[in-house]
Amino acid sequence: MKTMRLRATGHTTRHALLAGTVLALMAPLAACGGGSDTAEGDGKTLRLWHYEQEDGALSNAWDAAIAEFKKTHPDVKVVFERKTFDQIQQNAGMILNSDKAPDVMEYNKGNATTGLLAKQGLLTDLTATVRERGWDKKISESASVTARYDAKGEMGGDTWYGIPNYGEFVLAYYNDDLFEKHDITKPTDFKSFEAALAEFKAAGITPLANAGNDHPAGHWLYLLALSKADDTWVENYQLYKGEVDFHGPEWTYAVNKYKEWLDKGYFDKKDVGLKGNDMTEQFVSQKRPILVGGNWWFGGFTTDIENFQWSTAPYPGSEKTLGSGGNHWVIPTKAKNKELAEDFIDITMSDKIQKLIGEEGNVPLAAKPDSITNPKSRELITAFNTYQSSNGLAFYPDWPVTGYYDTWMAATQNLMNGGKPDAALDELAAPYEKYAASRR
């Protein structure tokens, strides 16, 4: 088995590629166009930052967008600087409040990031521009929630501060060869999904990949709750629009079903200490025929799986899934060339660049699946569009409360170690209810 090159690039963690310091953030790391990086407000220089890994799907798309921008703006110098996620995350507030602010940059979605900078007045209100350029027609309501904020800096407001170009979501990956070998029908609904789990277990195979020491275990628990949830439930939990009952039917079903699957051996209790890459190795090595996880694993699978056929589909047990619009472009309030920044964003939303994002194995927000020639990528995008078109993106379970990710991991690990379902719910409820009370 060759070394896995899978890299989680989803909502939960982004590993720094380099050590981030304020000094490094202020200095250009890479420049396109040469010369000084001093940007004047004369419409002749575009300063652009992003933190995508070189040669990754999104980095390739942004390289193509820069090349297209240069064609359409031959008199404009582009100064591009590749930062690390941590550099921008840790120092953005200070830098954007100085004359070193770029004209456009990639930034992380969420209340503690884009929402905080918007509330501090450091990001440009893009609402009018979104309507003028028609970006709101290309981005669905559910995918735009994390791009829109209210006066408190909380997502889901009426003011656009970011423009996402791609999406992310959790879906099902199937080892088609193992399904065929054991004469098991691939699932089309929850009943057939559980039937497949039972048949694999009867054949001596643990069906579901999992990782208790990382985000996948919590994702499973939230996904099970979503299978019994509606839009109001999601908004109450994620956006604090109403009361959340952690012992209500949705959460109770989730922990009980999770425990049932543990007891039946559909999950392996020994997976409690595994990380996400360990989980994907289970799928790639054909030890687990089913993996339900993020599309951020997709690119690695296309590279690392060579000896069996596999496919993707929406998880058949729920009309909602974990997911959202991806990280987005923002324009700092102190940007010197905002119109050029808008022009660049517009190019990233073009059919050409959106198609490239799809062909590279990511999920474009504004490309039709039938325009994508890569069949596996087309399958992935079709699955995403199924959720996007029905308001089925329900964000991630750890988003509502700062530091909640650790709580989620501890609660699911306790459940996998034999803890009582009600105790897991109490564990999840405590920090959430404390924060909810502080907002009143």
From TrEMBL:
SUPFAM superfamilies assigned: Periplasmic binding protein-like II (SSF53850)
One Pfam family it belongs to: SBP_bac_1
Domain of life: Bacteria
Signal found in the keyword field: yes
Signal sequence, renumbered to the chain: 1-33
Keywords of this entry: Signal
Keyword Nucleotide-binding carried by entry: no
Record-linked InterPro entries: Bact_solute-bd_prot1, SBP
Protein name, UniProt field: Extracellular solute-binding protein
